Structure formats: structure tokens, C-alpha cells
Amino acid sequence: MDFSLASKQPNLPCIEFSKENTEQGTTSWLTTSKKVVSALENYGCFLATYNDNFSLDLHNAVFESTKQLFDLPLETKLLNTSKTPSHGYVGQEPVVPLYEGLGIEDVTTPLGARTFTNLMWPSGNEAFCETTCLFTKVVAELDQVVMRMVSQSYGIENHYELLLESTSYLFRLIKYRQRQEKETTLGIVPHTDKSFMSILHQHQVPGLEIKTTDDQWILVDPSPSSFIVMAGDACMAWTNGRIEAPQHRVIMKGTEERYSLGVFTFIRDQIIRTPKELADEEHEVKFQPFDHYKYIDFYYTDEGKKSKCPIKLYCGI
Ligand SMILES: O=C(O)CCC(=O)C(=O)O
Ligand SMILES: [Fe+2]
Question: What number does the ligand 1 atom closest to the CA of 174 have?
Fold first, then answer.
């Protein structure tokens, strides 16, 4: 019997973000932009790989800091609160008992990482603050390059410029603790992100799976030099459904603990509208203008949580 077809795993598109490919106006930039748009339209995500401008030292340092954070007493971690649901400490949830996460809002602003560090370590932790700033700066730059490529390709760069002024970055540090043999393997339930864009970075232990449009789960192998760039619900509405937010989940097959990091963009104090350039007679506008943070509040209601596609329920036309 031939098992070769059955065992064939689909792969995510992999795109190299070298200095050369990310220099605006060059042919490499244009070629890379085409790959980015095609990957986002077909998968809602892709793997961005780095050969230069992201170091193994920074990868190791940021996960060392992450471990230190989770080793703090629970009462300290619980000080990480937020007005926005799930943007602060999340953990001890019966459905996903392995999951624990902390959030740093506005992480790229001068006070973002500093305020959080002082809250967690009143006597200071310079290494944490510094690595968080360095890491999130690299990821925010990646986000902006991707968004520039997408918006230029769609002829809506001026609309993106406006959004960028209102973009805030949430840094989420995540730990899935060791699993007892009889415990659930579900690390995080299947979901689409509520963000505009999400960029994920994993540490050694696999677990993240992303669903393709033909309903296959792709396991994304961790690599110290790659990031998963993924569209969130807000991007789907903004692009009039051209780019869809993919379903993803975490399955913890082994018993090892797992760490991952996510940088999520949110649009604050500005109504998100589908640019008129993305609508014509064949493609009518499919989403009403909406406030991103009000959408998050809606998602955390019973109605929002139960919905198969909360963004369509919230502002779909
Ligand atoms: O841990 C991961 O790799 C994924 C986390 C995730 O999907 C999320 O925080 O929204
Ligand atoms: Fe997610």
C-alpha cells in the first residue's frame, strides 16, 4: 500500500525577510510583497524567516526573561490587569488548564515595558525590560513592513498610514505548563485572533496548528529565526474579506512545558473602515465601520463567544 499521499503534510508559505527583500522600491521588495499578499489571501498567514537582523542571542534572551516572569508568584502575576478582556493576566481556566498568559499593552511606547517591569519586579529587572523592548521593536518593524507591502499592493497605503497612527502593540507572553499524562492535550481552543495582525514566535516545543481553507491542520514547527505572521479579524473586515483570519489552536502532545510569544496589533481611538478602493460593483462592502475595542468587548459576551464568525456577526453587512 502507498501511504505517501496520506502522510503528505501541507506547509505554510515561507517568506525570507532579509535586508535586501525589505528595502522599499527594489524589485526584491516587489517580489516579496507579491508573496506576502498571496500567502495572506490563501492561508491568512505565513512564516517570515530571518537570516539577518534577528539574532539567536535575542531569541534566547527573550525566552529566558519569559521563564523568569512565569516563575513569579501567582499573586504578583495577578497584578497584571487590563480594562480590555484578556489583555492582562489569563490563567487557571478550567477548559484550558495548561494555559497561562500575561499581556503588556502599548509595549512599544517609552513607558510600556517599563511600567510592566516595575509592577512585576519592584526592585527592578533591567534585563527583562531591555529584551522586551528590543524584541518587540523587531516584531513591530516586521508588522509595519508586512502592512506596507499589503497596503501598497492594494493601492491603499494612505489608509494604512492613518491606521498606523492609531496602532497599539500588545505583547503577550504565554506558557503551557507540563501536562500530566491523563490531562487534556488542548493548550488553546481553536479560534481566530481578535487583533488586526498577530505575530507569533515559538520556543522549541511544537504545538501551534493552523487550519487551511480545506480544513487541514498544519503543525508549525518552532524555529529561532522565524515568526508566524497571521491576520486577525479586524484585518479581515478592513480588507473587505480578501484576507481571512485563520483558525488556529495549540495541542500539547508531549508532557514538556511550552513557551510562546505573541505581538498583536489593535487600532485605538479610530473607526476602522473598509477603504473604498477595495469595493466595486462585484465586491460590495461587506463590513460596517467599527471600533476595534468595542468589537473585543462584544467578542467576550456570550453571543460573541458562541459565534462561528464573530466579526461578521458584529459588523458584517
Ligand atoms: O501559543 C501559541 O503558539 C498561539 C497563541 C495564540 O494563538 C494566541 O495567543 O492567540
Ligand atoms: Fe491566537
Answer: 1
